[in-house]
Amino acid sequence: MKKLNLGCGKVIKKGWTNVDLQKGRGIDKSFNFTKYPYPFKDNTFEEILLDNVLEHISNPQEVMKELWRISKKGAIIRIIVPYYNSYIAYGDHTHVNFFNEWSLQQALGQSGYLHKKQKEQFEILKMKAVPQRYLKILPKSILNVLKKLFGNVVVILDTEVKVLK
How far apart are alpha carbons 149 and 92 in whole angstroms? Predict the structure, then answer.
């Protein structure tokens, strides 16, 4: 099973192809994530991880189209991003995008206002808004209200999508 750890940084995963912008020990390939196409063949990977990567890239929809290209049919892509109104999102000056559930759906090409469907299709399997650790005991219904009223209630959006081809 071919797995891609895109934007691995110092988190090197054994059994995965670890790629990053920088070169370093354990990094298999280094390239600019805003230059397309990526240096992989079509239909290569069965699993892709983007852990705190997408918020650093100016055009996330183009990245997702490229990941669709290099993914096999049915591949799973896990996307972890800081929630738009959390201290994690604004605590790093290299972040150029901020995500909530709707903006991530838009990056996946699931905008309700588009007339023409894009060929790169994804099925959202899981989209979980992860709250601060001390708020995890609250029921989901209360968290859904609080996250709209206050910042820093939800800190991470953890999403899994399936590649449809």
Answer: 23
**Segment 38-88, tens digit of pLDDT:** 999 999 999 999 999 999 999 999 999 999 999 999 999 999 999 999 999
> What is the DSSP-derived secondary structure letter of residue 8?
-
| Distance between CA atoms of residues 111 and 143, nearest Å | 25
Containing 51, the helix (H) or strand (E) segment is strand 45-51
The number of beta carbons lying within 10 Å of the beta carbon of residue 61 is: 15
Task: Dihedral sign for Cα 6, 78, 110, 83, please.
Answer: negative
List the chain domain ranges. 3-164
pTM as predicted: 0.93
User: Each residue of 80-111: pLDDT tens digit?
Assistant: 999 999 999 999 999 999 999 999 999 998 87
Name residues whose C-beta falls within 8 Å of residue 119's C-beta, 6 or more positions apart in sequence: none
In CATH terms, the fold of domain 3-164 is: Rossmann fold (3.40.50)
Q: What is the dihedral of CA 27, 29, 35, 40, to 10 degrees?
A: -130
